[in-house]
Amino acid sequence: MSAQVDTHAHQDDHGHHPKETFITKYIFCQDHKMIAKQYLITGIIMGVVGILMSLLMRMQIAWPSQPNPIFEALLGKWAPGGVMDADIYLALVTIHGTIMVFFVLTAGLSGTFSNLLIPLQIGARDMASGFLNMVSYWLFFLSSVIMVASFFVEAGPAAAGWTIYPPLSALPLAQGGSGAGMTLWLVSMAIFIASSLLGSLNYIVTVLNLRTKGMAMTRLPLTIWAFFITAVIGVVSFPVLLSAALLLIMDRSFGTSFFLSDIFIQGEVLHYQGGSPVLFEHLFWFLGHPEVYIVLLPALGITSEVIATNSRKPIFGYRAMVASILAIAFLSTIVWGHHMFISGMNPFLGSVFTFTTLLIAIPSAVKAFNYITTLWKGNLQLNPAMLFSIGLVSTFITGGLTGIILGDSALDINVHDTYFVVAHFHLVMGISALYGLFAGVYHWFPKMFGRMLNKNLGYIHFWVTAICAYGVFFPMHFIGMAGLPRRYYTNSNFPLFDDTSNVQILITVFALVGGVFQLVFLWNFFHSIFYGKKAEQNPWRSNTLEWTTPVEHMHGNWPGEIPHVERWAYDYSKPGHDDDFVPQNVPLKEGEEELQH
Amino acid sequence: MTGLLTILILLGITIAIWQMVKIFDLAQANKDVTQIANDNDNRIHGYLMLAFLVFIYGITIVSFALWGDLPLTSNSASEHGPEIDRLMIISMVVIFIVQTITQFLLHYFAFKYKGEKGRKALFYADNDKLEFIWTVIPVIVLAGLIMYGLFTWTDIMTIDEDEDPIVVELYAQQFNWKARYAGEDNVLGKANVRLINLDNANILGLDESDPNAQDDIITTELHLPVGQPILFKMRSQDVLHSAYMPHFRAQMNCVPGMITQFAFTPTVTTEEMRLNPDIYEKVRNINKIRVQKSKKLQAKGEEPLDSYEFDYLLLCNKICGKSHYNMQMKIIVESEEDYKAWLKEQKLFKNSLVQN
Q1: Is residue A24 part of a domain?
Q2: N or C: more exposed end of chain A, with fewer CB within 10 A?
Q3: Hey, is the C-beta of A495 within 8 angstroms of any chain B C-beta?
Q4: A588 lies within 8 A of chain B by CB
């Protein structure tokens, strides 16, 4: 670490880098910028897999049990004659959820942008430990491979939902997917958690120790605040999931009874006694709920940066924004029980969790209002990244508001586990975080690859995605409030729900169109890496330090000394300056005051 | 073979889109080298933001117009149901007011302040008064909702044993439901899955020596007398299930190894509910849809669908395995006389055992 901080030593050492081979540069690389790209591309590939699964599910729900050649082609023995099997439907539900939540929106989002931006925006040569960073990526890669490989085991992949509640997930007798498929799921997630912890520790240490001269915590861009707090939440909550997974492995393979008791299945009584599935639910959601914010906070951080830059205005209420990140982080660890109102836990606990859950709406509301106020009287540069950020605020509000219903224990009784929940969390964390990811990619693509993405393709991508996202998830609230449970392979056994079948078809059409149009992004992304327009050093005229580095990547990020920070990150359109932006490394003019923040 | 063909076709479509995107990209390649939004882009997308606002309002209105009858916010069939419905409607109203205003501000500002070359944004970084206002307003609104919600919740979840509720066990297993009535003594006999003995048809694992168990009654349909408080005790023999009775605004998980509970008082009999104009209309609409579907099925030479008649249902609402989607039990709410008559026809536990 000391060598990294000592700029002179590093410079000398930088001129001749003789041992740079293909392997050290592109594969086992310790440079944070390359690791960020590795995370992003792995995340995109996992995203394609995850979205494809959701499209298969949507087709099954809209046209239940109809032979579909696409099923036959993609699912093979799981769709004999093109009719999807009920077990594989649940497997798709499970793996889609797992992949999107963990592999795309945790690793793909945090992994990419924390790695890319933390050193660049705080003015560091690299992460505190490049080696751990590399290990973190490769563990993530390994866990991705194992997760996808679980589709190829004989009895199918894990199919107990991404929440893998025992006993269903513990007993191969209860479900085919709870055999080898679930073992692979647990192994994959254990490796994933190790990866995530290594990454998070690295981010925390880097932010705390490697900030350049003048980069006080109160001058950190909001992106860094978001990544930093996200890492802290990860370190606090992921180990609990790991412990839950380990205990589940013990129950599954070594005959313990942590989560199991009094079970009679397929004609036999099992030996388990004294355990409780509710304990697992507590442990799972102690990660599971903070996980929502692990997904969301980086997206909000990216949005803060993109909105401020493109509004040519300081982010409104910097202190309130930091305070709300801290408040959300704290509250996120004491609200997990709102997933368990009707789990059989004491109703008094339900009251407590209702209270804490609705509290979390307050910092969220403050953030939304601050974004809107930032737009007010701005000079908005409607780049694709900006559109995705505005889109994020829109879906964050729409999705967040229904949280008021789900967080209320009395109302949760009747909408729990219905499509209403599906609509709520897809909008508030799925789509919002995905928009954050896209905004980040459009905004920092020039930094990552030295080239520009095609803006018109970006515009098409945004508008079609935005319309389809609302088209899919808005009507879904209504069928949820009709009492339609989620995770049903088909609803045709309930004539009661026949009047929702047309809505299901409409939703599927929107989903298919939205899914196909992601190809526009993929083309833009992969084509522009090689053939995009060459980027200038600071294309968005932004204040943060990453834009003071040369376009061509180099080890150590800055050719000379690391710039010193003289001001906060949001001096956009500040009176007294000719330009409408003042980079963080520009000293204060004589008599110029830095804002009290 | 079809599989291979389909993959080829999908591949073909993908390549076609890919190529279209490429042509699009090349066609406008030289127009703007910077790939940064210019005034023209800002104008176009500013207007599109406004259009998108209209789209959000539009989809809201259309959803309500087309599917506004779907949500279960009226015609509940239990005593506590209207409380939940009222709270739901109040919450929805709050949500829609906030949604309408904030979406308007967001998209309108995105349109109004679209960038123009040479204009300078207002340097406006902070305002404690504003921050205070929009912290306090949500606090007040949420405090109201929390209070209302907590009172409702406590009211629903507090079980008043003095009311002498009828005790019924809901027993879940992959993939069906059983109900167990406590019989004359209104006390359920002791039970544990370890006592299940399929040979003598002790399918729910009742303690055969427990006197309270003798008059228990096990059924596959749930009959409830109208106007009487019912205390449900939930059990599961294998995995988690959830006993969901949407019309009664009632739900509770069934957890192996423990007994959970939920109580409500049904207020509308099945017969009355069938005659309710809203339900009548809903059923008519569903039958129209089913006739349409039947026509398609018959054209393919398959059996047509039965016509639908309204019934209350108990659904499984916690993922429980392969046939989770078809784990249901019919609920019939009827007058006390009908209920008693029905109960009398059922076999007592002691008589249901097979003597070997």
Answers
A1: no
A2: N
A3: yes
A4: no
